[in-house]
């Protein structure tokens, strides 16, 4: 009996997010989708990743997905994901053509898809926690050091 309880507890344990997936907007209908293009050689991309990780953690109702601009695959892609500390799924295929948008010419670039599945915005340059929340209509994160007082 005790063994069964341990097994059930293990089944309910949180698993790390999938590292790689393909984009099917139907899977995200009713949710905001944030797609971030990054590359290993892009210093602003590396600096932006902690903001995206924080956003993905604070706003789990928004899907945050990455795209490796250079099309790295398999072990090379995983090594880059690990090197950047990316904690959100990375798409295997560039979704630009399927979304009807041009492939970015500047990195980082972030594409915002609204809950209706339509393109809402494309922003070039590094995003912040605040700019991501604003672009997706989320409540702004509390200012650092601020406390709510009753």
Automatic annotation (TrEMBL):
<dbReference type="InterPro" id="IPR036249">
    <property type="entry name" value="Thioredoxin-like_sf"/>
</dbReference>
<dbReference type="InterPro" id="IPR050553">
    <property type="entry name" value="Thioredoxin_ResA/DsbE_sf"/>
</dbReference>
<dbReference type="GO" id="GO:0016209">
    <property type="term" value="F:antioxidant activity"/>
</dbReference>
<feature type="domain" description="Thioredoxin">
    <location>
        <begin position="9"/>
        <end position="141"/>
    </location>
</feature>
<dbReference type="GO" id="GO:0016491">
    <property type="term" value="F:oxidoreductase activity"/>
</dbReference>
<protein>
    <submittedName>
        <fullName>TlpA family protein disulfide reductase</fullName>
    </submittedName>
</protein>
<dbReference type="Pfam" id="PF00578">
    <property type="entry name" value="AhpC-TSA"/>
</dbReference>
<dbReference type="InterPro" id="IPR013766">
    <property type="entry name" value="Thioredoxin_domain"/>
</dbReference>
<feature type="region of interest" description="Disordered">
    <location>
        <begin position="123"/>
        <end position="150"/>
    </location>
</feature>
<dbReference type="InterPro" id="IPR000866">
    <property type="entry name" value="AhpC/TSA"/>
</dbReference>
């Amino acid at each position: 009996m005790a063994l069964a309880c341990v097994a059930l507890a293990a089944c309910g344990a949180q698993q790390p997010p999938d590292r790689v997936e393909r984009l099917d907007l139907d899977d995200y209908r009713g949710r905001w989708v944030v797609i971030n293009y990054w590359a290993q050689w892009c210093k602003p991309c590396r600096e932006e990743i902690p903001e995206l990780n924080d956003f993905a953690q604070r706003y789990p109702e928004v899907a945050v997905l990455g795209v490796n601009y250079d099309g790295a695959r398999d072990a090379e892609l995983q090594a880059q994901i690990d090197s950047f500390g990316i904690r959100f799924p990375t798409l295997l295929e560039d979704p630009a053509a399927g979304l009807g948008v041009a492939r970015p010419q500047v990195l980082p670039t972030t594409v915002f898809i609204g809950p209706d599945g339509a393109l809402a915005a494309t922003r070039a340059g590094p995003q912040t926690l605040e700019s991501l929340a604003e672009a997706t209509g989320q409540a702004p994160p509390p200012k650092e050091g601020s406390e709510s007082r009753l």
